[in-house]
Amino acid sequence: MPSVGAKPVYALVGTDSFLQLLKLREILAILPPDVQRTDLDGEKADLAEVLDECRSFAMFGGGKLVVVRNADDFITRFREQLEDYCAKPSDSATLILRCESLPKNQRIYKAIAKTGQVEECTPPGERMLGKWITDHARAGHRVQIAPQAAEQLAQLIGADLGKLDTEIAKLALLADGKTIQPQHVAEIVTFQREQKMWDMTNALAAGDTTEALRRWRHLLATEPSSEFRAVTWMGMWLENVRKALALKRQGMNPFTIAQQLKIWPRENVQPFFKTAEELGEAGVARALDLLATVDRQSKSGVGEASTNVERFILELAV
């Protein structure tokens, strides 16, 4: 295997994109820094393409990481072959299947659990949300948060873990090494700031690169921590765009889709669907691939995070 601590196969199961991305980062952290990563779309990927990537040798010896997003359909189409692969996985690659569901009574679940690991990416319930905020603040941001402040965040934002992560990052800067208190939450949790990121992504999808860059630089100037959260935010945004297009194909109306995907406030709904139509499925897939490259480069020290995001904006427009 590429690393002593890494499993050869993972299934990241759940509808919460943030938790999947968080778990993916945890896996990346135990892989060699020079691991060769390939991202594939499970709705279009062929079995041979995926297995060839897993079984071929990495060019620079750091092992291979193969991530299949939207893997539900991929698993359905190639269930038996994947069961066989999981029984005898490649010893030089890590395969990650990102899917929304994987019943425990299915053979594929048991096969992955035997040689690899199944990670449940399900948001905590209302009663456990405050504890999740406390734990994530400590583990993800190295900051303590008072119980009252955690509950206040839970009430203000709910179980939208991506938004909670963004706000905790801001609060950590404001607290400056001290415990986050309720007054910090009252001071910094403003949904208007997130509107700036919406405006940037909408300009990007509309093909207005100049405006997207202007908004990104303004966001950096007003909120420097944005450079460390932009990739996660844009990854979740693109995942929502992909899900919206899929739900629309199934005949679901925009209002119901917006409710299901928690697109808010209301004035963001129309621009979001306009963005989704302008990008299309092919555009979303390309954007996700570009974003994965940017994220990998930032983590490996290739360029500044803010500069890498600018490059993503420019390359997406090409």
UniProtKB/TrEMBL annotation:
Keyword Transferase belongs to the record: yes
Domain DNA polymerase III delta subunit-like C-terminal positions: 194-316
Enzymatic reactions: DNA(n) + a 2'-deoxyribonucleoside 5'-triphosphate = DNA(n+1) + diphosphate
UniProt record, GO biological process: DNA-templated DNA replication
Enzyme Commission number: 2.7.7.7
GO molecular function, one term: DNA binding
GO cellular component: DNA polymerase III complex
Top-level class of the enzyme under EC nomenclature: transferase
Annotated InterPro entries: DNA_pol3_clamp-load_cplx_C (IPR008921), DNA_pol3_delta-like_C (IPR048466), DNA_pol3_delta_N (IPR010372), DNA_polIII_delta (IPR005790), P-loop_NTPase (IPR027417)
Annotated ranges, domain DNA polymerase III delta N-terminal: 33-121
Keywords linked to the UniProt accession: DNA replication, DNA-directed DNA polymerase, Nucleotidyltransferase, Transferase
Superkingdom of origin organism: Bacteria
Pfam families in the record: DNA_pol3_delta (PF06144), DNA_pol3_delta_C (PF21694)
Record flagged with keyword Metal-binding: no
Coiled coil: none
Family affiliation: Belongs to the DNA polymerase HolA subunit family.
Record's protein name: DNA polymerase III subunit delta
Provenance organism: Humisphaera borealis
